[in-house]
């Protein structure tokens, strides 16, 4: 994997995060090349990481073993169709972090039957703390799957799904999920202020509590239900609060919210497919 030449098409936040993670893992910067029409953006990437950059997609993929598509879905058709006649014989894998673009759609745009791994990262990937869902097309072999996993693991935890349609569920849970936790922190902070705590104290106590709870869930290995039970004493304050959540139908509300996000993700994918 360390010998692969990786071409990134698009030099935005996700490409930058992947490059930062790969280099932190020991990847050779000169084996990474980034193409983006924004000259200031690619110059900044060269200065920061020492990677090669260009404003030509054709030049970026000329010697690439792996192509990573990091462009917005709105411009993906034009970008991919423009790459179709430029794909080199060395290229063996396409990794897509384009939200909502199905593998069959990418294949039709590129005009090739290359193996494709589709990735659904989330915004904490920019801090190398992402949760990423992956799906591989049938053409991808074990080596190519490992290559894709190595790239995405540089920015967080990865999990494979067996059915591409499950990427929509990943989108609903981890893709949109940070916003759910931000909303809970926002409302908990507001509740703390209403109880009389100063604003800064309310914010810091809320954020640190969220961080501590997440660390306990990750590092302890116990499921959230077990952790919840351990801090819920019979007749205590936590039990009183959790009863209000239960009476308000929190579980059903979360399930309906996740279902709505999944349905929206599927609809957006359908729209991109129709436009192709």
TrEMBL record:
GO molecular function list: pyrroline-5-carboxylate reductase activity
Record: residues binding NADPH: 57
Pathway given in the UniProt record: Amino-acid biosynthesis; L-proline biosynthesis; L-proline from L-glutamate 5-semialdehyde: step 1/1
Span of domain Pyrroline-5-carboxylate reductase dimerisation: 164-268
Residues in Pyrroline-5-carboxylate reductase catalytic N-terminal domain copies: 5-100
Catalytic reaction list: L-proline + NADP(+) = (S)-1-pyrroline-5-carboxylate + NADPH + 2 H(+); L-proline + NAD(+) = (S)-1-pyrroline-5-carboxylate + NADH + 2 H(+)
Subcellular location: Cytoplasm
Residue sites binding NADP(+) per the record: 9-14
GO cellular component: cytoplasm
UniProt keyword annotation of Amino-acid biosynthesis present: yes
InterPro entries assigned to the protein according to its UniProt record, in alphabetical order: 6-PGluconate_DH-like_C_sf, NAD(P)-bd_dom_sf, P5C_Rdtase_cat_N, P5CR_dimer, Pyrroline-COOH_reductase
Superkingdom of this protein's organism: Bacteria
Family: Belongs to the pyrroline-5-carboxylate reductase family.
Summary of the function given for this chain in its UniProt record: Catalyzes the reduction of 1-pyrroline-5-carboxylate (PCA) to L-proline.
HAMAP family per record: P5C_reductase
Protein name per its UniProtKB record: Pyrroline-5-carboxylate reductase
């Amino acid at each position: 994997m360390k010998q692969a030449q990786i071409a990134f098409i698009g030099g935005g936040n996700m490409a930058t995060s992947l490059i930062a993670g790969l280099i932190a893992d020991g990847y050779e910067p000169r084996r990474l090349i980034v193409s983006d029409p924004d000259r200031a953006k690619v110059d900044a990437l060269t200065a920061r990481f020492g990677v090669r950059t260009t404003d030509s997609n054709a030049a970026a993929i000329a010697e690439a073993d792996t192509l990573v598509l990091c462009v917005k879905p709105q411009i993906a058709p034009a970008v991919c169709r423009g790459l179709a006649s430029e794909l080199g014989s060395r290229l063996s894998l396409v990794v897509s972090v384009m939200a909502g673009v199905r593998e069959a759609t990418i294949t039709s745009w590129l005009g090739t039957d290359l193996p494709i791994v589709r990735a659904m990262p989330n915004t904490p990937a920019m801090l190398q703390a992402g949760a990423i869902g992956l799906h591989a097309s049938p053409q991808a072999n074990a080596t190519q799957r490992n290559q894709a996993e190595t790239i995405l693991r540089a920015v967080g935890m990865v999990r494979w799904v067996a059915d591409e349609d499950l990427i929509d569920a990943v989108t609903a849970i981890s893709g949109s999920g940070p916003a759910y936790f931000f909303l809970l922190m926002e409302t908990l902070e507001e509740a703390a202020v209403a109880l009389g705590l100063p604003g800064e104290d309310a914010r810091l106590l809320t954020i640190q509590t969220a961080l501590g709870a997440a660390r306990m869930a990750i590092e302890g290995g116990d499921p959230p239900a077990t952790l919840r039970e351990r801090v819920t004493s019979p007749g205590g304050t936590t039990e009183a609060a959790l009863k209000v959540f239960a009476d308000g139908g929190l579980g059903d509300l979360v399930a309906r919210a996740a279902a709505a996000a999944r349905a929206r993700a599927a609809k957006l994918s359908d729209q991109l497919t129709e436009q192709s």
